[in-house]
């Protein structure tokens, strides 16, 4: 024990020095330390005003780098738990913030109130350790050092023209979708996108059918946008237009890779949906969230391309291709909706920051974005193979097979797991520090299919191996 | 005429070489050229596929820098009007985009569909030529070169903690408002802010009273957020709670500096509004959009501070303090609304990009933001004085007096203008290339006060002088 620790025998310091961090959990050490220290402070109001050990002393005690400690301290200073004093030193804040229990969370898409680390097998997340931060920083710096005057002038509320052009080019090259730059609208993600669609293309409260199971947040997003949602159970080919209520004005589907089952909608079903939309004068929103990550075979081109962008609004995003931190998505509109959308946006303006847009445009135009996607595709394909090999021999528990695309596997329950139900298994896994989403928790209709989602894209082989071992032990001792 | 021009005798090139740019209009030359060329292309579908003069040749003909021409070409390439070919050269696109007339615009807060330059006397706009782009680029580069892992991890949907902390510190120093970081929520501007308030703090369709005259876009923003707006005519002290319908659940006011008249709400009226809110269990949204620009005397502290953040939500923005391109605003919530807001945001997630947030946080924490505000304050104070001196002797036309704060002057109509009405004068000014907003166009109720808004902050002395001369001639020849 260092001399500093001997001088300060308070509970807090003792707890801190006794802390044991797990080097193999896949959770960064600084995040573990931040979380542990935050919990200590919440549990111990008497620590208010107390001085924390210097970062060097704590780092020595915990055998971590000093950077790990200063990162944790800085985070908690930013959150208001800790403060610094002009005389030097880091102290517990005099009035600790929000000791109240955290706000209730949405079960499946929780957004906790302080930054936390995602755990395996969280699906739908790119590996942020592979985020090309140096390139990205350079594009940001270049775009803003001598900004195009138009950036600071009256920006087009549809978004920065060269970003819209770059998206157009990307869709032509990667998704077989031909459109004009004029049809591309930059959004602040799916929620913003549905909000704009509701205002420009649908009557108030219009009925929109969605896939069940599907994206768990969809209901909240549509409700917040004034759209009435009607979940419709999918079959082995996806959503069947024969199952749509007659008053349906729109459907949102994930034809390239159904979320979360991974089903690719066959051509016959695609054509049937387009026929339905034409007959009913209805709208299809094609949510194409990660189709670029295809590991084998030719991807089916976007449904919007098959339709010639007549009845289909194509919705894309950079959250999975690059980072959710960007919070940038886009819509590609049928030509007849361009003017109504301009009118809708003209009344309120855009909600999307211009700051990332020119940088993202040059990142795409330079070819570095495509290089990044190809690199991620190699990583993710390798990780999927690795996870499958790590989980080999569990056939009685998990029905797994290689998936030609995507960022997670959707496992059916084997005979040994069938008695438990996917939600109970998910709860048990949570107690072991695993995020193992239940397929049925993505459904609103009764009698939902059972399964477990195994996200692999965001985790390296070490993290996947540790998590697979934990899962193996868990399943065998249920 | 250059040899190049002699070789190409098409209409387009002849029109281009005949173009006359106005060096004294206050509109950048590249923007004038872009606009003129765009209009030529729209008017002349036969130009499709035609080769444009090399930038050097056109620059020589127009006596402008080559950069002016390449900036205009690049912009129109981005918009799809022009294209380049592998063999070199710039060409008119084969299929010119959107030759249809532009979408109808909101009269007072128009967002045109292509980047354009703001004209004097556009109010509510900072001078973007003074935007600290080198500093800003450096902060962006630093924040993203070695990003804090939490930036790419699970960001708090209330926003980046150190930005929320920096806003807290700014409000304490500049606006006399004490709050906890936990009460600050980062938004994508006013529309996003009202949308969040509607979801977290108001019943669906709740009646919100607004100031009349007021912000012309407000009605659209509230409607898009599911709030029912009731404009209420203000008197010389601002909005009077005695005029509020009994079913009012909330009011939005600009007590520090009423938009657009510039009235500062006196303390007695502030207290009366707080009493009203307490008695009715109602909510006040304090829209504090540019109070930092105060040139004389002490600013009245924020109403939210007087209230101790019990009944008042404070709404701020960086659009006028720094740049509308950021599209970043914030709310400061009463403590009792923090948990409902977390619940509301948890269901859909945030719409705000993380990209600018750490850079803005360090820009503020470094003190450079405060330096920038003080610098802008000096510029704007000087510009107001300059504009008043340039318009001296027009007392029969414009009732003008020095304003201790703000970014525009609100002029009453003198006896010589009274017969015309402010909207007619505004229309006439438009034809002369002046943006001269009518006060009555900011009102929805009949019998609105008459006046003209003279924004000066965004324009340098040369532009103000030119515009003041144009205005003088216009007023005297009405």
UniProtKB/TrEMBL annotation, chains A, B:
Keyword tags: DNA-binding, Pyridoxal phosphate, Transcription, Transcription regulation
Domain HTH gntR-type positions: 27-95
One Pfam assignment: GntR
Keyword Ribosomal protein belongs to the record: no
CDD domains according to UniProt: AAT_like (cd00609), WHTH_GntR (cd07377)
SMART domains according to UniProt: HTH_GNTR
Signal peptide from the UniProt entry: none
InterPro entries attached to this UniProt entry: Aminotransferase_I/II_large, HTH_trans_reg/aminotransferase, PyrdxlP-dep_Trfase, PyrdxlP-dep_Trfase_major, Tscrpt_reg_HTH_GntR, WH-like_DNA-bd_sf, WH_DNA-bd_sf
Transcription regulation as UniProt keyword: yes
Entry's family note: In the C-terminal section; belongs to the class-I pyridoxal-phosphate-dependent aminotransferase family.
Name of the protein in its database record: GntR family transcriptional regulator
Organism field: Thioclava sediminum
